[in-house]
Write the structure tokens for this entry.
Amino acid sequence: MRGHLRVLENEAIHVFREVAAQFERPVLLFSGGKDSAVLVWLARKALHPAPVPFPLLHIDTGHNFPETIEFRDRFAADMGLELIVRSVQDTIDRGRVREEAGPEASRNALQTVTLLDAIRELSVDAALGGARRDEEKTRAKERFFSHRDRFGQWDPRKQRPELWNLYNGRMNRREHFRVFPLSNWTETDVWEYVRLEQVPLPPLYFAHEREVVERDGVILAWTPFIELGEGEEVRRERVRFRTIGDATCTGALRSVATSVEAIIAEVEGARVTERRGRADDRRSEAAMEDRKRGGYF
Amino acid sequence: MVAARSDGDMGLLRFTTAGGVDDGKSTLIGRLLYDTKSVFADQLEEVRSASRRLGETATNLALLTDGLRAEREQKITIDVAYRYFATRRRKFIIADTPGHVQYTRNMVTGASTAELAVVLIDARRGVLTQSKRHAFIASLLGIPHLIVAVNKMDLVDYSEEVYDRVRSDFARFARKLTVKDITYLPISALHGDNVVAWSRRMPWYRGGALLHRLETVSLGGRRNQIDFRFPVQHVFRPDEGFRGYAGSVASGRVAPGDEIVVLPSGQTTRVRAIHTPNGRMAAARPGDAVVLTTDDEIDISRGDMIVRRRNIPVVTNRFEAYLCWMGEEAMQPRRQYHLLHTTHWVRAVVERIEYRVDVNTLRREPTAVIELNDIGRVEITATRPLFFDSYRVNSATGSFVLVDPHTNVTVAAGMIRGRVRRLSAPRRRARPAVRRKSERVVWEGTNIPREEREERIGHKAFVLWFTGMSAAGKSTVARGVERALFERGVRTMLLDGDHLRHGLTGDLGFSDRDRTENIRRVGEVARLFFEQGSAVLCTFVSPFRDDRDRVRALFPADRFFEVHVYAPLDVLRARDPKGLYRLEASGELELPGSRSAYEVPERPELELDTSAVSPGEAVEEVLDAIGFLIT
């Protein structure tokens, strides 16, 4: 019997090929994180020996870690893929959204508008993302081919049934799909695959020393984008990130894991979910569901 | 115990859980996740706080799995949710499906990819109709292994007698099912008895715990290992030197050197190599996503199927199937749906409903409609042949979905039984053409047979007969189709009512008798062009079924396509390009179909609602239907 990583890889490749065949203008949403790096890796394998026919799209909050941006540019170039960047700052400058204020301000929610604008601008009919069903309860009900109406919205009660490996990519004009080839992967699977295939990742995932601020039990990197609240102080700690998103809301964890091997051991022993460190998910119990309905990643 | 392999790669089992509202299904899943340490501290804390808010005394493990807000509020599960956990032996994906009456749809969805189903039965209530329903669906969807978990044993004092009774009741019912491997287990999801570890509280039970069964059941039982089927997903042509066919092996195996046939063209060649992203492969097995190259360059495109020379699937466009209806709107007989089978999109019509299965009693009942959550046996006609095996033999090539052409929503899951076996299936071959012929003439057949002409021209001859009321859009569509065919090098001729009435039929009026004679002459003219190798497009109101059927009888069955072009009457009146409806309204003219009868075709090959599709789309549909004759 085939090992689970090859089963998951085959499944993801099948989905990629369906996207290449059923859609005209797909993009691959690329954040510079591990899931999107694995996604690009799989896209290349799925279409090999043909080149990947769709570009990468990065929605830049402007609050990224410099390491993420550097990795993003190098990885796209190494993989020989076109990289399109659309920035939240532009969306703010054009008056499409207003920036949050205060110490907890985050641009995370604003990304949705930038993303939907980019989808319209580029006439995207399928946006491939690295979301996984194990990340969060609402995502447990996502489809591989997730339909979005012409306003980019997700209606969990009207999701299309998805059976066998038959993926229905039919839609009306101006609607689009989000496609999640890694739906059935877990955090451990992603790391095991990174180890197996030696997928390059940004250094942020591995333990390093940096200045951090602890807020509500979440360790945030000290960056120019966050304001210090009362009683908060900047400390130097040895940390790594389990997920990489907007620097204002991505939590780090204390770690000494400097290799993929050590990280896998750490993930298997972890007692909290990876999104625990995401301040954005903690705003309310149904925070993710609300954002997804609105067109979030 | 088998330790995980050093590279961390191990088997993957997909299973589904089904149970009624109170059978404790969510609790069981919560228990499996919790006891295998797949629940994280923050998730548990969230569930604890939610339990308190909902006024529950103990932590409700079921809340671990209820993801959407509406579900938490109503304490029900409304959609299939996927859960993940792993032990040292295996990875697991659970398709957690709600068990309410109205959610057969979800159970079918969850069961479509599962290799094992856990059916939960409340020990106090015994085998209920819903338990039977779950088992029936598991069986219908071809799940090879079934585990019947008799839950809430704590509430019946862990009684062996109660367990035995439930077990024998279920076994009696299960004789009607096709699942061969059924295992029974007494458990308490709430207390964890026999879930992860064997329970001392039921010393009389000698089998292993549920998890042990999940860890050891054999994998791969869903896949047909024998019949090689390779639906082509995509053709890769990165450069002139390489032409490869990408796809996932649906079933069977293939190796370089194997003789293969490509459907529908029937061309044969050999596999040259099997490329994978990880290098070349000596043989491809079910589930492998590969790229095949062949010895000879032949024309293959998405939707084609590559099979082995001496092992070919059924090729036909008429078949019988079970449908599980999933759309909010009931099935519309005669309506065209999109049908997705492997990587092949076609159009299809449900010709006949044989019966509906009452999922509670498993009785067959006659019905005129199939609605949400119904399971029915039907007869389907597709616009193009499918290459399939029966679902029982090969779920990968026996499954399909139907998609509503307007909303694009997936409205049904289908499982093919086989080709239509009724002998009749009579497409009314009109009264064998009582053709009038002049005296003392003998038909000797054409000098050069049509087949030879077709060979020379490079495509098949056929007739597209566009029928429908005035202003329905017949000419617009037909002209578009003719132009598209012409561009592709097809020899065409368009016969149009108005044109012919300027000459050949200029002596005829609009009485019923003259209309009949008009259509008769047109049919004969079409036949001459057909025999000469052309694609003949005829646009005539042709209101009478008998007239059309007489024309149909002049041509081979697979070369005549009746295309019914229609739109609602108010749309026709609004269009009225020739002002005929206005004349009719003022009493100056009688139009067929509004006042005098237009007889709607019973079984046209194609139906086009021009109020719902654009002319371009309509043209595409027609081309779709006849595509196999011109490529």
Q: What stands out?
A: The first strand of chain A starts at residue 26 and ends at 29. The two ends of chain A are 35 Å apart (CA to CA). The mean pLDDT of chain A is 87. Chain A touches chain B through 64 residues (CB under 8 Å).
